[in-house]
Amino acid sequence: MLDLKKIVIKNWVLENKTTLKNVNLFYETFGQELGTAPVVLVNHALTGNSTVVGENGWWNDLIGENKTIDTKFYTVLAINIPGNGFDGNEENQIVDYKNFTIRDIASVFWQVVFQLKIESLFAVIGGSLGGAIAWEMSVLEPNSIENVIPIATDWKATDWMIANVLVQDVILNNSSSPIQDARVHAMLLYRTPESLKNKFEGKVNPKNQRFEIENWLCYHGEKLEQRFQLASYKLMNHLLKTNDITRGRERLENVISNVKSNIHIVSIDTDRFFVAKEDKETYEVLRKVKSNVYHHKIQSIHGHDAFLIEYKQLNEILENVFNIIYIK
């Protein structure tokens, strides 16, 4: 059962110096009661939300009782990106989406954490957009996270990312079926030709005589339209191009040298959205100035979406992070 909790942010100062007052944010907690156990913050991806476990949980294979992130031992906190529409509250929608950056989201997440009287986080973990927010959170509070785990993401927006955000934005602002059409395009960024060939093999559906790949893409577009709002999609997509932990700061190695956290960068070898080569280059730079940075790679034919598919590999990567302080 959905158990959304609300917290009010009295003053949220954006990067562009705009101040928003009395903003409602919504979050969920799982596992141990706040204040009684180490806290793991899970940041959701573009079309995700705070329901990470349970009947509709999108990360049940990683989080839960006796799972890698064991809710018998940890408090799991998940905050909805403001404006993602998950609370169903129209007045909480953020309409002027281009005013916001990933740094703004990371900043307001820290406000939530501190208002909940959480002094430090055992881990911040997230895939894709959620992982980018994790990078920024680590820089904003360099002494407050023990483990930062950005998965299938990057600390900056590449030209490739910026280009694809533009394509999505054009679709979202010009299509007669914006959510469906943008989702159809996005799914091709999240998977690989090999993944689609393995899944469909050029088969035709005998009921409607369409290729199965066409049915699958249309299904995902229609499904997202039923549960997601246009303003939310525009905002989440836009945030991806605002990602840069060095903006207005120093070079990457100087910025990260101040971060005390263990940093576990998790790449997917076939990711064509956030490409693994970028993570490798980041790791090579950071390991010269930081001893506790690690690079892990998931092997998969599925591309970007492998962080939601290859659970065995992801669990194997993360079990040493989450099991080191106790024995099951």
From TrEMBL:
Gene3D superfamilies given in the database record: alpha/beta hydrolase
Keyword Calcium: no
Alphabetical UniProt keywords: Hydrolase, Transferase
GO molecular function, one term: hydrolase activity
InterPro entries cross-referenced by the UniProt entry: AB_hydrolase_1 (IPR000073), AB_hydrolase_fold (IPR029058), HAT_MetX-like (IPR008220)
Domain AB hydrolase-1: 38-159
Superkingdom of source: Bacteria
Listed name of the protein: Alpha/beta fold hydrolase
Organism of derivation: Flavobacterium jumunjinense
